[in-house]
Each structure stands twice: as C-alpha cells, then as structure tokens.
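Let's practice the habit of predicting before peeking. Look at the sequence and jot down your guess about where helices and strands might fall. Then scroll down.
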Amino acid sequence: MTPNSRHKKQTILHSVPYRGRVVEHRINRGFTLIEIAVGLFIVSLILGSILIPLGTQVEQKQLSDTQKSMEEAKEALVGYTIANGYLPCPDLTTGANSNDGQEDVTAGACTSTEGNLPWATLGVTGVDSWGNRIRYRADPTYSSHSTPFILTSNSALRVCTNAACSTLLTSGTAGQGAVAVLMSHGKNGLGAINSTTNAAYPAPTGADELANTDNNTIFVSRTQSAAGSTAGEFDDIVIWLSKNLLFNRMVAAGKLP
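Done guessing? Here is the structure:
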C-alpha cells in the first residue's frame, strides 16, 4: 500500500479456494467516515481562512469608495462656490421636493441648514457604498444666496473627536471652523436616508453617532468602534470644508477679496 493509497478508492484482490481452484475476488474499498470527516474539516479551515480576509477587503473597498465620493463632492462644493459666490443649500429629506438631489432655497436662504447632499445640483453622486444618502450641512453665512460672505465672515460648524467636543479637529479659533460638513452614516446606516426608498433608518444609540444626527453645529469624527465597546458604536465617515481652504481657492480664482 502506497502512502497515498488511503486517499483514493482502492481495489483489493482477495484469494479464496473454490472447487480445488484459487479464485481472486475483487473487493472495492472506498473512504471511511473518519477520512471523510477529516477531509471536510480541512476544507472548512481553508475556506474560512480565505473568506474572512475577503470580507475585510470588501469592507475596506466600501469605505475607500465612500471617502472618494465624499472628497469629490467637497471639490464640487468649492467649484460651485467659486462660480456662484455661496455654498449650495441642502436637499430636504422630508416634504415637498425632498430627496430629489436639488438644493432647496426659500427667499434667498436655505430652507433647511441640514439635509441631503444636493447631488443633482452639484453633478456628483449623493450615495455612499451602502446605498444611503450622504448627509450635508452648510453654515448659513456661507450658504446665503442673497448676502455674500466676505473674508471676515465667521463660521460656526465644528468637528470634534466626541459628542462633548473635548477636542476640536477644525480650527480652535472662534469663527474659524468648517463652512460645510459631509457625512456618511457608515455600514450600520443608523440615522441615514435610504436612496432607493427614501425611508429613514432608526436613530443611532451611541452618543457620538447621535451627535451627527441632532441638527446642531457639532459633528463627531473618530476611529470606528463596534457596538458594545466602551466608546460605543461608531462607523460614521465625516469630512469637512474648512474656511481657510475655501478662501484660499476663491482668492486663487480671483473671487476674493
């Protein structure tokens, strides 16, 4: 018997006497139950080692694709502002003309300071990798369609590392914060608007994710953490357009001062 004979079907010659003659009977021997069980165990280990990294790769691609879309949207915001002299208003999430990707303006001011990214107005994608709309908030001073902002205009939006805003990520100087914030609600989608049904998902439970849905001027951007962790569940993706960046681009384009 060769070393590999246990892993394939074997044919064994068995000699028995019959009427004075020796007759060889062929006995076919297949795999034993133990051999099959061991084989299945090995296959499961191999598949497990392949599928887990593959799942991680898919999640990383979704994350990077969403970040890329949001960065493209930020560039579109700059271009729109250079062309028009103000930031676009958010697209409403409820009511008439909501969820159509067009900015909503009333009497020269934004109908709402926070809502969907106006993707149709900007000509960009307004959806993240999980099929939810990208959230957008603009500072009223910079989104006013009737009163242009100037170099001394202030901005109130702040991005922090937690809901208490103990550490600022935007400028710590008063009035020098972000002029616009873009956000994806991440894989869990809590607080998001579905791009297909326009239905709102349940509100998040963690304090930091709640801070990104409470319609105030504080947003949170930090390392992702799972549900049940000490820091609380968090998978939001937040980027912002700073006042300094916008001013630099507008000065370079000859739109300011």
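How did you do? Strands lie at 10-18, 21-29, 105-106, 109-110, 114-116, 135-138, 158-160, 178-184, 218-220, 237-242.
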